[in-house]
Amino acid sequence: MGGSNIRVISVIRGLKNRQQLERMSTTPAVILLDGEANALSVARSLGRRGITVYSISSPQEYVRYSRYCRWLAVESGVVDRRESEWELFLLGRAAEIHRGSILLACSDAALLFIARHRPELAERFLLDDSNPEAQLAMLDKLATYRAAVGAGVATPRFWTAGSVNEISAVRDELVFPLIIKPLVSHVFFERFGRKFVEVQNYGELLERFASVSESRLELMLVEKIPGPDELLCSYYTYLGHEGRALFHFTKRVVRRFPVSMGTCCYHVTDWVPDLCPIALRLFQHVGLRGLANVEFKRDPRDGRLKLIECNARFTAANALVTASGYDLAWLVYCRLAKRPEPRFARFLRGRRLWYPRQDLRSFLELRRRGELGFHQWLWSLRHRKMLPFFRWDDPLPSIVNETRHAWRNVRRLARR
Predict the structure, then answer these.
(1) Burial class (CB in 10 A: 0-12, 13-18, 19+), 87
(2) pLDDT (tens digit, 9 = 90+) per residue, 87-115?
(3) Distance (Å, rounded) from C-alpha 284 to C-alpha 115?
(4) What are the angstrom distances between the C-alpha of 45 and each of 85, 184, 322?
(5) How far apart are CA 299 and CA 287, in angstroms?
(6) Is the distance from CB of 71 to CB of 45 less than 8 angstroms?
(7) How many other C-beta atoms are found inside a 10 Å radius of the C-beta of residue 84?
(8) I need a surface site. Which of 195, 208, 351, 393 has the fewest CB within 10 A?
């Protein structure tokens, strides 16, 4: 009698395990690798649908505090050890319980890591469709610009900058102001806290080049396109089989901080029709697959859209894209989980994403330059806006953000 009960219990447990495996195969969990506001947006989008979301990121990232995410304490927070810590966990025994999960990159460093380790990672996780060679080319700014030239896409003038002698050889061609740009932006940003360095003349170029070249990072020189930040615009799509675009989404920049060189602090969704064919020409020329984003700036001297940079991943404005009707995280999830894919017909125009503190500082800088008055700034804020971190159903990331900002101000005042 006891033996039959044990057999019945074993059968029941087996059925439960099989049902659990079936649920896992139809509703796989998601692991977000690195990322900031974009990772938080993806976690909220998928978590609200009942999908289990994990995050591998530094302890300081706000996604850690989201109710829709479970943080995996893998990173120590030391940037130089980040990739080795990812490799040790994701390719080690500790990640066996996550086998079959979807692994998504939410930063350039994560994109680079997955591209480098794709065969080994693909044995354990579900990875989005991609052409690693094309992704790596888009991470390399010089390769991106050269690909654009090959595709017949307009770019600012640019030059390689491997040494002072190389710069001296093209001195007569250079135009100022000029940007010293790293070939790999995220590494440069981690070391210097900015994406590039702007110089106004040849003497300043040599001085600043000497200081940044000590980092031994590869650099290039790029002409700075004149005009305000509102001339910047972006295109998003997903490239399926044979490079076919599944949708077209465009947005514009209202302001950045720091002005003309920082990250966008005020976005607005808008239709920029002449941007789509140019962007697709570049993507299809390099053979990009999966998520794709590219930023251009309209040159006021000739009216042409000229390339700034590309991203083959979720970007910082992902929350705005989602709120406008194009839930990119859900699209990628459905493709990988073999579910019916959402169809994106038309996105909502005029939706705005606003970073209040940064935009205030942008206004103050523009006012000092005489380029934006107080009433003009207020008038630009009259529209309904969304914030990057705050959501009523998930307030903790925003609370942590504001608390940290307040403590930084307290410490700054204490030092004074």
Answers:
(1) middle
(2) 999 999 999 999 999 999 999 999 999 99
(3) 19
(4) 27, 29, 8
(5) 27
(6) no
(7) 10
(8) 393
